[in-house]
């Protein structure tokens, strides 16, 4: 399976707009600002008076739409679009979204999904028994098949009944000839926001950075369990369930979302700065300079510098022109990938004691390579500070980390990792420090966040994944292993 040169794989990005003559172009622009959420494939479906047009393909948005004719072939007053990073199913074109479904009553409908369903295997089996023929292999399609086979009377009732059969993480955008609909799972694992254009067009998308991109004003977050219905008459808010428990993914704040996005009222950049400040308090160290690992940890590094009083400098740069290289998943090639991407500004680091701040360690490839690079550039010492807790447990709700095997934090203690990456010291942020840095989203015991990757406390049963999880935990002794720290 091809694998990108990244420790953490992104999720997916959604963008939809209803009531604008330039719908497909605005969807392209919105998706462009969500490209960080998925780089495997992209697609847009436009709605021209009830007639759908679709373009989709493998690769980055700019690659998929490099032929200008593709955009001109998407006329209409509404559109939905998607950028994908697979969590389920293969990497082929059939799994690139939006997906299309026949809908005899009205013609057809399209859907796009961010997240990962935890009962997809079970549902697929049930639907197969009923004779359903699948068009793709990912989990996303299941909602469309459930709607098509539902005995409810109209589209919204069919949708609501179907959403109630899904488990796991799902932010969905759907479009029929007459409406655009958004729905969010009962835990609200993924961010989903509503905005409005000056001329009244409604936008629904994964992050506020996409609203900014198209000049839309933020209206509100989509709440867990909600179904948002947008028609030519405006927007209505409905529910498929009120049995909800907000557990938004803490990794959105740590790494995934763009720093200029605001998720549920909290600026991602400011939250990351607070994470950096918190690890500076939890694990102080004497040093000459703080440097961050571009790009994702720069906010946390600034926060560390501000809280510690140690000055921040640009000790590393990221090559802006690194081609999107898909490589075989071997460690040697991953190291080469990181080396093509990151380099050191020697004048900042030579002869200095350095605090190196990163947001996360997944396999340890990045920190291992960078510590060596800094030392070769003359750094006296390198103290690594990670602005999130030790990543030990898989995510089943939409991030492509579904096994503990490659997580260095699941397999080694912090002192062992420190030695493996060649650092002079290593410290991670505590789970409590992380939660406080993001801030309370509500007064529930989990403060509205999912921190399962760090503490193994999943907010839902794991369904299809439970048996595999139990055996990995037993194999690694993970819960007892917490005392490895
Ligand atoms: O331990 P590893 O397996 O190397 O993975 C961890 C690294 O991966 C992520 O960065 P990424 O390479 O995605 O780049 P970015 O910060 O520019 O998004 C993360 O921010 C760490 O730097
Ligand atoms: N990362 C995602 O949100 C992926 C959506 C869906 N599970 C897929 O694999 O296509
Ligand atoms: Mg990074």
TrEMBL record:
Binds 1 Mg(2+) ion per subunit. It comes from the Bacteria. One of its GO terms (biological process) is purine nucleobase biosynthetic process. It catalyses: 5-phospho-beta-D-ribosylamine + L-glutamate + diphosphate = 5-phospho-alpha-D-ribose 1-diphosphate + L-glutamine + H2O. GO terms for molecular function: amidophosphoribosyltransferase activity; magnesium ion binding. In the C-terminal section; belongs to the purine/pyrimidine phosphoribosyltransferase family. This is Amidophosphoribosyltransferase. It comes from Secundilactobacillus silagincola. The lineage of its organism: Bacteria, Bacillati, Bacillota, Bacilli, Lactobacillales.
């Amino acid at each position: 399976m091809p694998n990108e040169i990244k420790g953490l794989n992104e999720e997916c990005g959604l963008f939809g707009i209803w009531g604008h003559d330039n719908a497909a172009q605005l969807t392209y622009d919105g998706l462009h600002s969500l490209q960080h959420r998925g780089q495997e494939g992209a697609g847009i479906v436009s709605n021209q008076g009830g007639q759908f047009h679709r373009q989709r393909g493998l690769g980055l948005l700019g690659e998929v739409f490099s032929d200008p004719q593709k955009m001109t072939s998407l006329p209409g007053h509404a559109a939905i679009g998607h950028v994908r990073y697979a969590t389920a199913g293969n990497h082929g074109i059939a799994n690139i979204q939006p997906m299309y479904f026949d809908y005899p009553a009205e013609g057809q409908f399209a859907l796009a999904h961010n997240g990962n369903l935890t009962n997809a295997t079970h549902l697929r089996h049930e639907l197969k028994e009923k004779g359903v023929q699948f068009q793709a292999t990912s989990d996303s399609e299941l909602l469309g098949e459930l709607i098509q086979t539902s005995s409810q009377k109209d589209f919204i009732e069919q949708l609501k009944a179907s959403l109630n059969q899904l488990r796991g993480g799902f932010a969905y955008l759907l479009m029929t000839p007459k409406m655009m609909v958004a729905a969010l799972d009962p835990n609200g694992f993924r961010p989903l926001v509503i905005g409005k254009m000056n001329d009244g067009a409604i936008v629904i998308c994964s992050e506020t950075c996409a609203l900014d991109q198209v000049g839309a004003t933020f209206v509100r977050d989509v709440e867990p369990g909600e179904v948002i219905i947008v028609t030519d008459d405006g927007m209505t808010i409905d529910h498929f369930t009120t049995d909800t428990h907000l557990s938004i993914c803490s990794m959105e704040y740590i790494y995934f979302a763009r720093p200029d996005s605001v998720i549920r009222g909290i600026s991602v950049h400011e939250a990351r700065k607070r994470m950096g400040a918190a690890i500076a308090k939890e694990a102080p160290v004497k040093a000459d300079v703080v440097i961050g690992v571009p790009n994702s940890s720069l906010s946390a590094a600034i926060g560390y510098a501000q809280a510690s009083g140690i000055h921040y400098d640009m000790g590393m740069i990221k090559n802006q022109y690194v081609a999107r290289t898909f490589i075989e998943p071997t460690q040697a090639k991953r190291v080469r990938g990181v080396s093509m991407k990151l380099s050191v500004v020697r004048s900042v680091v030579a002869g200095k004691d350095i605090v190196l701040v990163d947001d996360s360690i997944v396999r340890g490839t990045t920190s291992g390579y960078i510590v060596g690079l800094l030392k070769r550039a003359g750094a006296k010492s390198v103290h690594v500070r990670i602005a999130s807790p030790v990543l030990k447990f898989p995510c089943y709700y939409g991030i492509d980390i579904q096994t503990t095997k490659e997580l260095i934090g699941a397999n080694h203690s912090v002192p062992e990792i420190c030695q493996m990456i060649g650092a002079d010291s290593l410290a991670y942020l505590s789970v409590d420090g992380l939660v406080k840095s993001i801030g309370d989203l509500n007064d529930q015991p989990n403060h509205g966040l999912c921190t399962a990757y760090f503490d193994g406390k999943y907010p839902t049963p794991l369904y299809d994944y439970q048996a595999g999880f139990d055996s990995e935990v037993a194999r690694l002794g993970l819960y007892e292993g917490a005392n490895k720290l």
